[in-house]
Amino acid sequence: MEFRLAGKKALVTGGTRGIGRAIVLGLARAGADVVTCHRQEGEAADLLARELKEIGGDHHVIKADVGRLDDIERLAEECRARFGSLDIVVNNAGVISHIPFAELPPQEWRRVLDANLTGTAFVVSASLPLLSAGASIVNVGSRVATVGVPLRAHYTASKAGLIGLTRSLAKELGPRGIRVNVVAPGPVETESEIPAPVRERYQNMIPLGRMGISEEVANVVLFMASDLSSFVSGETIHVDGGI
């Protein structure tokens, strides 16, 4: 299936690594112009910028932390100045940590919720004046939102909150022709090394017998961003191999 997004303007948060990187490259290859952001300077951001230049198009890699409201406002202003409007917003940026709930510091709860849930809400809010009729908002969630995982109560709560936020926004923004959906990955291979026992446990849990790859999640995000899913809104699409 070929996704044709020529002329579309997209914002992707957290786009320099893993799933976010695959989403940015997928959108660019489908013809969209993309603004993406990252929290830290480094080789990942530089490499993405070089790859986007090779693909061609009007792409920009910007430093911004969606856990900070002033950075979100600056990011939206960059999109306005460079594109004038947006057709696609992908909220991919997020953080995670593994801490027993009894030992979870309040500041870590706030850090994860601010990045994963509050940041998403504020990115949507800041983007609203730029969104065209027919625009698509895709929030990258997680399979854990509906099952729960030990040591990640704060992360799970943030991703579960995305589902409720998405359902409400789909109903509120639908009359403007704006669709809002969640794409929820299961276990996915990324740049981080996964210990062998953890990999084996995941593979035993997944009916397809393997972990996913970032591009498989990105393909679903592209579908949800495109006109091929023009009557899909308020949904959570799990990309988890049937776990």
TrEMBL record:
Record-annotated Ketoreductase domain positions = 8-191
At the top level of its lineage, which domain of life is listed?
Answer: Bacteria
The alphabetical list of record keywords is: Oxidoreductase
Similarity comment text for this entry? Belongs to the short-chain dehydrogenases/reductases (SDR) family.
Which protein are we looking at?
A: SDR family NAD(P)-dependent oxidoreductase
